[in-house]
């Protein structure tokens, strides 16, 4: 594992830097990516610093991407943030630069890169980037940087409700707020949904299969998305909805993709579920993970496995 000083020294060596993050980005992916880029642009105005990946339509209020050419990778430093494994990096050219750094807070199942800094105790990758900036006089936490990092922290902590939130997380958030960002505007942007997404929440409650153990499953298929006029990205906005129910301890949300397979979102309020995700082409945090299912049979198999995980957790009185 490398130190912050190692990473800063590497950054100083390169005139071209490309910062990437995971596919289907959330606020933390965009916040850590753009927050780091903004800090580096402020400190090193002569360097060419680009952020790459596909734009997230629902998060354009937070950040939009640069056009990154093949030539931009030639001799460049590439930094991958908030991305646990290489298949999820949102640019297949990530390994075509001169040097690769991984900065992340997910379990380090794939320790890729020439340098890496992984802190699984951090609430978010944005929290790590804030610490990285604070660790050196080379970089500065400014109002512009704080905007992105605060959004990332708020996004990955569920507005400070998730167990990964620590005293350190709150202290960083307070420091970012003190720089004068419009934190209430950020919170409102994250809280805002479309009428179609609101209707989807209602449909989700109607479709939710809640086992007596406290495990739950919601399937959002292509027919429902077509009926409501939403895409897969907007369907992902309701992933936390089942957790509001008293009867639900852990849950799966299966969102069907255009090829008929399912993107599986796993969430939990106690039982560890990232092992289940790993068994189904996925992974992630102990209480928040993603996986894939090739068909409804695999979706239902995952639900059966989740039920057993929850039962075992409760039988131990955890």
TrEMBL record:
Q: In terms of domain of life, where is this protein from?
A: Bacteria
Q: Where is the DHHA1 domain?
A: 227-311
InterPro entries annotated for this entry?
Answer: DDH_dom, DHH_sf, DHHA1_dom, Oligoribo/pAp-PDE_c-di-AMP_PDE
Protein name (Swiss-Prot/TrEMBL): Phosphoesterase, DHH family protein
Short name of one Pfam family: DHHA1
- List GO molecular-function terms, semicolon-separated: nucleic acid binding
DDH domain sequence ranges: 16-153
């Amino acid at each position: 594992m490398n130190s912050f000083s190692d990473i800063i020294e590497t950054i100083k060596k390169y005139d071209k830097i490309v910062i990437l993050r995971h596919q289907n980005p959330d606020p933390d992916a965009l916040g850590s990516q753009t927050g780091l880029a903004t800090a580096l642009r402020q400190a090193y105005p002569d360097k060419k610093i680009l952020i790459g990946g596909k734009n997230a339509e629902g998060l354009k209020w937070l950040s939009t991407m640069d056009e990154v050419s093949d030539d931009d990778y030639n001799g460049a430093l590439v930094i991958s943030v908030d991305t646990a494994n290489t298949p999820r990096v949102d640019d297949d050219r990530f390994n075509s630069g001169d040097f690769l750094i991984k900065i992340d807070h997910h379990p380090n199942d794939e320790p890729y890169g020439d340098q890496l800094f992984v802190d699984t105790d951090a609430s978010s990758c944005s929290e790590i980037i804030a610490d990285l900036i604070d660790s050196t006089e080379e970089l500065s936490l400014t109002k512009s940087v704080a905007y992105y990092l605060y959004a990332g922290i708020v996004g990955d902590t569920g507005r400070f409700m998730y167990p990964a939130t620590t005293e350190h997380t709150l202290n960083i958030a307070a420091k970012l707020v003190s720089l004068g960002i419009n934190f209430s505007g950020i919170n409102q942007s994250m809280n805002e949904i479309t009428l179609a997404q609101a209707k989807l929440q209602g449909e989700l409650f109607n479709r939710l299969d809640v086992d007596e153990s406290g495990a739950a499953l919601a399937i959002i298929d292509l027919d429902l998305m077509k009926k409501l006029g939403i895409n897969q990205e907007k369907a992902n906005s309701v992933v936390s909805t089942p957790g509001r129910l008293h009867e639900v301890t852990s849950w799966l949300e299966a969102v069907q993709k255009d090829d008929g397979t399912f993107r599986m979102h796993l969430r939990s309020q106690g039982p560890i579920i990232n092992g289940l995700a790993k068994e189904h082409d996925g992974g992630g945090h102990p209480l928040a993970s993603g996986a894939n299912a090739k068909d409804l049979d695999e979706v239902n198999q995952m639900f059966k496995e989740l039920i057993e995980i929850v039962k075992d957790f409760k039988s131990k009185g955890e």
